Amino acid sequence: MKLLMFSGFCSSSPWRLSVLKSPLLWKSGTGWRRQPLRRTHQHSWASNVVQGRVSVDQGSRKLEISTGKLARFADGCAMVQLGDTSVMVTAVSKTKPTSSQFMPLVVDYRQKAAAAGRIPTTYLRREIGYTDNEILTSRVIDRSIRPLFPSGYFYDTQIVCNLLAVDGVNDPDILAINGASAAVALSDIPWNGPIGAVRVGLVDGEVVINPTQKEMTLSTLNLVLVGGPHSQVVMMDAAAENVLQQDFCHAVKMGVKHTQQIILAIQQLVNEHGNPKRTPQKMFVPSTDIVEIARQLASEKVRGVFSDFTHDKVSRDDAINKVRLETEEQLRDKFSEAEPYEVKEAFNVVSKEVFRNIIMNEYLRCDGRDLRSLRNINCEVDLYKPLHGSALFQRGQTQVLCTVAFDSVESSIKTDLITTLISGVKEKNFMLHYEFPPYATNEIGKLVGQNRRELGHGALAEKALKSVVPKEFPFTIRVTAEVLESNGSSSMASVCAGSMALMDAGVPISAPVAGVAVGLITKINLDKPTEIEDYRLLTDILGIEDYNGDMDFKMAGTNKGITALQADIKIAGLPLKIIMEAIQQASVAKKEILSIMSKAITKPREKRKENGPVLETVTVPVSKRARFVGPGGYNLRKLQAQTGVTISQVDEETFSVFAPTPNAMHEASEFISELCKDDQEQQLEFGAVYTGTITEIRDIGVMVKLYPNMTAVLLHNSQLDHRKVRHPSAIGLEVGQQIQVKYFGRDPTDGRMRLSRKVLQSPAATVVKNLSDKSSIVIGARDSSASSASS
Fold this sequence. Notes:
The protein is α+β, with helices and mostly antiparallel strands. The protein has six domains: 2-44, no CATH class; 49-273, GHMP Kinase, N-terminal domain (Ribosomal Protein S5, domain 2), CATH 3.30.230; 288-362, Arc Repressor Mutant, subunit A (Orthogonal Bundle); 377-597, GHMP Kinase, N-terminal domain (Ribosomal Protein S5, domain 2, 2-Layer Sandwich); 614-677, Ribosomal Protein S8, Chain: A, domain 1; 681-790, CATH 2.40.50.140. The chain is 32% helix and 27% strand. The chain contains 19 helices and 34 strands. Strands 9, 10, 11, 12, 20, 21, 22, 23 and 24 form a nine-stranded antiparallel sheet that branches. It has a six-stranded mixed sheet with strand order 3-4-5-6-8-7. The chain is elongated. Its EC number is 2.7.7.8.
C-alpha cells in the first residue's frame, strides 16, 4: 500500500523516474537527460540554483542579461532588459536526431498583449495566430543564430521569445536576438556562439545605437546588425531613406563595435553559469571514405555539367540529377551498410566542391559569366490598359510582374493595438505583397496564401520602395509582385519591377530604385577554421549559386544611396572587409541596372491614367449638410452602393470623394448635385409665416414641405403646440393637411431649418398624449375647441 501511494505521488512529479530508476537520469518531453545532482529533489534544486546577471552600458541606459530565475526546465533561458522592456527567451533541443536533412530550427517570437498592458481584440480575447511583425522578427532571429550551429546537427530545436513587459520606448526585437544568443550559449546545445545584436539609427547625420522609438521617427536608417566574435558580421537587415554609401558603411562599423561588448558580457555569463555542451549521438556528415569514392566516381562528370555554359536552369538540374542517380547507385553497391543520408550527402559534398572550385580557380560561373557581370535584363511597362500601373522585369530566368492598384485612404492597413504599442506603427498607406506560385520553379503546390518566406521577401521589397514613395499621397497604394519565373534573386527583381510599375502609375517617387543580390564563395583556412583564406564575390547570383554559396547579400537603392539591405550569411560570420567590398560591388551593379531600366521608363508619368481613380473635394454649406448626409447617413450609404465611391469628411464643410473610375465620379457628381441643388429656400424670409403641407407623420414630429420643389423639413413635436405633444396625431394632424408655420432660419450647429407652429398658437397648459393611450387625461384646458380635440 505504501508502495502504491509512493508511485502515485511520483506520477505527478517531474522527477518520478529519477527517484524510481536512477538519481542521475530523468525523463523529459525530449527524452532521457543526465540529471545534475542538485536536481534530485525539487525543493533543494530550486533553493540552490545560482542566478547570474551581466550588464552592458548603452549610453544612459543599461542592457541587462540574466539567467537562473525563470523557465529552469528549458535547456537554456535568458532574460534581457533594456529600460522597462523585458524579454525572456528559452532554447530547447531534442536529444534524438530527426530524419530531415537540414537543421530543423523553429523560432517563435510572440507579442503578448499583457506585456503592453492590453487585452487582445480578438473574439476570444486571446492571442490567436501570428502577426506579420511576429513572423518577420522570428525570421531575423532565425537568420542570426542558424549559421552558428555545427554542420550535420539535425536535432529539432526551438527558440521561444516571450515578451514580459514593453515600455513603448525600447523595441523588444533586439532584446530577443540577444536573448536567443544567451539562451543557446548557456544551454548544453552545440553552438558556436555567442553573438550580439544592436539597432543602428542615423539621426541628423549622427549614429545612434539602440535608439528609442521617438528617436527612430527622426532616423533615416533602421539597421539591425548581428555581430560575432572577432568583429565579424553574422546578419544585417536594414531599411534606409536613401542613405549615402559612406554613411551606411560608417554605421555598420559602429554597430559591429558595439556588438562586441554584448558578446563579451554573454561570454562572461556563460563562463560563470553555462552548461557543458552535449555530445550528439551522431552528426549527419558522411564519412571521408564514402566522400572520396564519390569524388572519384562523379567529380569529372559534375565538372563537365558545370563547365557547359549552354545549360539553362532546367537542363543543368536534369544533367546533375542524372549524374547523381548513377553515382548514388554505385555508392550503394560499394557501401551496402551506409545509411541513405550518407550516400546522398556524399554526392552533395562533391557537387558543391566542384562548383566552388571552378569559381575560385577559374573565375568563371556555370552560365559563362565572369564574377561581376549581370544577366541579360529586359523591361516593359504599361502591359495592360485597365491596370493603374504595371511592369515586367526579366533578369536571366527570373521574371517578375508587378501591378499597382490605388484605393481610398480608408483602405490603408491599420495595425493591431499591440503592434502599434510595440513598434509605434499605426497604419500604412503603401504596401507590397510578394507572391511565389509553385509554377515559377516548375513545381506543383497549394495556393494557400503567404508563407513566411513570401512575407519576408515582400517586406524587404516594400522597405526598398517605401522611402521614395511620397508620404502625403492622396491614395492608398498596393503593389503586387508575382514571380512568374525564378532562378535567383526574385525579391530584388520585385524591387526593380515595382519601381517601374509605380512610375507607370504616375506615383511621383523621388527616384527610381533597383536591387541586386551578391553572392560569396570562400576558402577556409584548415588550420584556423574561423579565418577565411580566400574568397570570391559574385554579382547577380543564380539560384544554384545561392544554394552552394556562403552568402546572399541583397541590396537596393537609387543612384544616390541605399534604401534597403539584407545579408543572409551561411557561415559563422564575415570580416568587415568582405562586407564593405560587397556593398561597393552591389552599388556598381545597382547603377548599371538603373541605366537599363531607364530605357523603358525614365520618370513617373505626369498624369495618372485615364481609367485610374479620381479624388475630389466637395464643399457642402452647413445649411445643406443634413440634406447631403441624410438621416443616419442614408444618402452617403446610398451613394456608395450605387456608384462605388467612398466619402469621408475632412472638416465642417468639406468632404473628400474617392471614385475608383472617372465614370463612377461622374455618377457621384450628378447624385451630389441633385442632393445639394438650390431650391426656393433662398426666397424664405426670417420671421415670415408660410403655409406648408404635411408629407409624413412621425413619432417625433411631422415632415412639412413649404414649396413643391423643396425638401420636406421636420417640424418637431416641441414646436407643434404650447401643450406637451407626445404624438402629432393627438392634435389631429394628418398627411396632406396644410398648416401655418413661422421660419426662423438655420440652426448654426447642425444646419437644420428651424420652423415653429407653436409661436402661432394661443398658450395652453394641456398635456396631450397619444390617442391610442386610453389613460390620457386633459388638465387645465383653456380652449374648448382644443379640449374637445384632445378628448
